[in-house]
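Researcher: Quick one. two chains, 435 residues in total.
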Amino acid sequence: MASSEDKQFRCTVITPTGRVLDCDATDVQIPAHDGQLGIQYNRLPVFCKLGLGFMTVREVSPDSREHRLVIDGGFSLLARNALTVIAYDAISKADTEASEYEALMARLERKVEDAEGNEGRLQAQRKLGFVKRLAGGS
Amino acid sequence: MASTRQILKRRNAVGSIARVTRTLEMISTARYKKYSGKRPAIVDFHDALTTAAVLLSTAPKPIDHPLLRENRAGRRAIVAIGSRKGLCGSYNVQVSRLVHVHVRQAESRGEPLDVYTPECRLEGLLRYQGVPIQEVFADLDELPTSEQTTRLADHFVGRYRAGELDQLGIVYMRYFSTSSRKAQTMTILPFGDLVDDLVTRAKVAWPWPLALEDFEVSPPVDEMIEELVRRLIHYSILNCFLDAALSEHLARMVAMRNATESADEMIKDLTGEYNRARQAQITAELLDIVSGSEAMA
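Model:
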C-alpha cells in the first residue's frame, strides 16, 4: 500500500518579495477567486485566479506540520504534481514575529482608513480580518 | 622640475579626488548590494508570471484582448533608462547607441518614434545628440514604487488601448552578472511580443508538455487575462528599472575603483617626485653653504 509520502506533491508559494513556502505536501487548500479549492496528489491540472483568504498546506514531515498563510490575490498553477502559487502578497504565521504582526496590522488599519471607495475599504477590512485571525490562531 | 610646494599641492588634490572616488565606490557598492538582494525574488515572481502567460498563449483559439491585438497607428514609443548620476563609464553612451538604432529604424520605416526617459543623465545626452524627448518622467524613483510603476504602465496601456501606439519598448542596460551587462530593448507592447521576449529570457518558460486545453481554468480565460496582462507588464517594467539600477551601480563601482587605484598610484609617484625634489633642494642648499664657506676661507 502506498504511504502518504508516496502521495506527495511539490508546493511553492512565490511572492514579489521571495518564496514564502517551498516544500513537499500531501494536502493543500488554496483561496481561489470563488472559494476554497482543495488539492491532493495526482489532481488534474488547474490554472485559477486567487482571491483573498487562507491557504493551508500539510507538509510532508515527521509531524505532518501544517502551514497557514493569508494570500491576497494572484494565480495558481498545478500540473504534474507541482503546485505554484503566484501570490501578490502572502503572510505566513511561521515567518511573522509578534512585533511584525502589530506593524502589519497598523499598516492595514491605515490602509482601511485611506482606502478610496467602498470596494477598496472592504477589501482592506477583509484582509485585516484574515491577518487578525492568523495572528490569533483561529 | 616642479617645486616641492607645487608637487605637494598636486598630491593633495589627487588625494582629495581619491577620497571622493572611494566614497562614490562605497555608496554604489551599498546600493548595488541593496538592489541585488531584491533581484532574485522579483525575477522569480516575474518568471512565474511568464509561465502563466505562456500557458495562456497555448490556447487553442487566439485570445481576443485589446493589448494582444496589433495596432496600425504608425507610431511607436520607447522608454530609455539612463544613469541617474554620472561617473559610470560608458553606460549612457551604450544606451544612447541603442536609442539611435531605434531612431534610424523608425526613420527608415517613415514612422514617428516617441522617446521617453525618466529623469536621468541620458536625457541631456540625447538632447545634445539631437534626439527629441517626448516627455521626461520626473516623478520616478531609481527603483520605482508599485504606484509609480502602475502609473507608468497605465500611461502606455491607455495609449495602446486607444489605438495611438503600435509598440512600446524599454531600452535599458540588462544585467547578466557582476561581469556582464548589455544595452537591450524589452518589448512591452503588444503583449504577444512581450511574452515572446520573456520566453527567451526566463530560466524555464514552460516546463510541461501540456497546453491550456489540458487545464481546468477558473474563471474563464477572458475574465483573467486582463489581470495577468497588467501584472506581467508591471513586473516587466519594474524588472527593467531594477536591472538598469543594478548595472548603473556596478558600472560606477568599477569606474570608481579604477579611478581610486589610478589616484593611489599617482600619489605614490608624486610622493617619490616630492622626495627627490626635496633632496635636490637640500643638496643645493648644502652646496651653497659649503661653497660659501670655502670662498670665505
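Chain A has a mean pLDDT of 86.
Researcher: Thanks, that's what I needed.
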